[in-house]
Design a protein that fits this description.
This protein has 131 residues and is an alpha+beta fold. The protein has helices spanning 19-30, 82-91; strands at residues 12-16, 33-38, 41-46, 49-56, 64-67, 70-73, 76-78, 95-96, 100-101, 107-112, 118-123. The strands form three sheets. Strands 7, 8, 9, 10 and 11 form a five-stranded mixed beta sheet that branches.
Length: 131
Amino acid sequence: MGNGRILGIAYNVIPVKDLEVSAAWFVKHFGFNIRHQREGYLSLFRGDRPILDLIQSDNETRATFEVHQKKRWVITFFTDDIGSLHDYLTSENVKVGAISDEGQYGKFFVLEDLDGNLFDVWEHPDCELNF
């Protein structure tokens, strides 16, 4: 039996305009698989691990916020090869920013999905994420 502690984040929920189109975009570009699909909602997994839940929304609100008039993301993805992922997404005409090398903090870039949700992508050689 557990000890009642938070062990991590199970998944993140983001709003999308067209559930089917957005799900296909995430499956194509990131290799996620679809689970738990129902009216206006579905889950995206990497293998057996939940990653994102997409919820169809007519509201224009997206998974971003602003700091000093600059849009920021609420979700950071981890990768073990940021250069290859960036090159692939660029070749697929995904909106991506330049790779930023932050030294001891790792390498980053920001991407935007079809709905304007922003995501940070991070690579760090000393990261201890368990998959």
